[in-house]
Amino acid sequence: MTKQTQFFTAPYRIDYEFIDGAGPLIICLHGYGQSGEKFYNSISSVLPTDAKVLIPNGPFPLPGKARTAEALGHAWYFYDSKSDEYYVSYDLAVGLIVQLIEHLNLADCEKIILGYSQGGYLAPFLAQELTALKNVVSINGSFRVDKMKKGKEDFLVHAINGADDDIVDPLQAQQKHAQLTGLQRRGDFHLLPQTHHRINKDVLAVLKSYLT
């Protein structure tokens, strides 16, 4: 018996919250096992009060020990590092968010994409499918520059990583961020001392500088 793979299209549910303001659209991409609400709550203190904020959940729920829908964690894609294989590609999540933005008539808005951990990995892939981008900011994420393509327009990717992160290797993230130069997308890289994988006041201070 031979293992085989075939890809099909299917409808996917995506839950989200939306705050309708007069300012730029800020798209918040949570980390693996998080919810959009949890990520939003961790950064809301530095978001502009007049911003539009789109807060989606990843399309793949991770029930774990959750007994209610509110307690679910979510994922954007599934990747096996040993085989370097995507069991569920990031393309699917990117396509869903693009459709959501179009559904909400937000495609022409000036946009800022904020991604944390797995969401930070996803952020540049989403950015290359959108227009009117002001900033892309990855928090405690890394990059697959080898899988990126030339998008509709150039944009910069700013990165904030903790020097003591034991989940995402910060030095490897820095090396991969430097490779964005080849795509004209290299922004600033911040390596914060005494900072782990969590979002702290130092992360928020740097993040705020890209939102004002």
Q: Can you describe this structure in just a few lines?
A:
This protein has 212 residues and is an alpha/beta fold. It has five helices and eleven strands; from the N terminus they run ββαβββββαβαββαβα. The N and C termini lie far apart (58 Å).
SSE diagram, text form:
Layout: E1 16-19, E2 25-29, H1 36-43, E3 52-56, E4 60-62, E5 73-75, E6 78-80, E7 85-88, H2 90-103, E8 111-116, H3 118-127, E9 133-139, E10 157-162, H4 170-178, E11 186-192, H5 201-209
Parallel strand pairs: 2-3, 2-8, 8-9, 9-10, 10-11
Antiparallel strand pairs: 1-3, 4-5, 6-7
Task: Provide structural commentary.
- It is a single chain.
- This protein is α/β, with parallel strands linked by helices.
- Helix content is 24%, strand content 25%.
- It has helices spanning 36-43, 90-103, 118-127, 170-178, 201-209; strands at 16-19, 25-29, 52-56, 60-62, 73-75, 78-80, 85-88, 111-116, 133-139, 157-162, 186-192.
- The strands form three sheets. Strands 1-3-2-8-9-10-11 form a seven-stranded mixed β-sheet, with helices on both faces.
- The model has no long low-confidence stretch (mean pLDDT 92).
